[in-house]
Amino acid sequence: MGDMVKLYPGWKEAGAHIVARTEAEGYGLVFSFEELFCLMDLKWPETASLEDWKRLSFEKLQYMENLKNLLLEEHNLCLHNIRGEGYRVLHPNDQVTVGIEKEYQKIGRLICKIVNKAVHVNQMELSFDGQQQQMRHLEKAAFLQAVMGKKKKLAGGGENGPPALPEQ
């Protein structure tokens, strides 16, 4: 009767383990990469071809994304990457600051890529319609950058509580 049933795929097993430990020990737990990969039954082979290494690397990335989504969407737990160490289970207060700020940074980088692609165009070959489209995209990107700059002001709310949304 001592046999334990493991969940499949392995990221579900890791998720169950993280939920149980967080319930028992609280937020702030750090799970090393090695511990997570062990929980997910992901192992590096001692010898492998380049293609095998690539496949395993992508598999690990996919497992980690599945694990993070499972914890966030089904258990309201947010994992935050600690470079070179592993992942920390964020406290809800940290989740709404650190966790969300990371996503805003990603959006900011995407807006910069949009601007870069719209600006670095061979202007001599660009038609009038192409120029008009370029300007519309740059205006949208400028608007998004302005909004992204204001998000920090809105997030705080000030001493009167959280900010009110404008009425429509």
Order of helices and strands: HEHHEEHH
> Which ranges are low-confidence, i.e. pLDDT below 50, for 5 or more consecutive residues?
157-168
With helices defined by DSSP (H or I, 4 residues minimum), what is the helix count?
5
Strand order of the largest sheet: 1-3-2
Shape: flat
Largest sheet data = 3 strands, antiparallel
Assign a percent range to the helix content.
Answer: 55-70%
Give the N-terminus to C-terminus distance in angstroms: 62 Å
Radius of gyration: 22 Å
Structural class based on helices, strands and sheet pairing = mainly alpha
- Determine the strand fraction and express it as a percent band: 5-15%
Quick one: how many beta strands? Answer: 3
Report mean pLDDT, rounded to a whole number: 85
How would you describe the overall organization of this protein?
By secondary structure, the protein is mostly helical. It has helices at 10-25, 33-39, 50-75, 92-119, 128-156, and strands at residues 30-32, 78-82, 86-90. Strands 1-3-2 form a 3-stranded antiparallel beta sheet. β2 (78-82) and β3 (86-90) form a beta hairpin. It is flat and about 70 Å long. The model is unreliable at 157-168 (pLDDT under 50).
Keywords:
mainly alpha, about 170 residues, 5 helices
Write the layout of secondary structure elements.
Blueprint: H1 10-25, E1 30-32, H2 33-39, H3 50-75, E2 78-82, E3 86-90, H4 92-119, H5 128-156
Antiparallel strand pairs: 1-3, 2-3
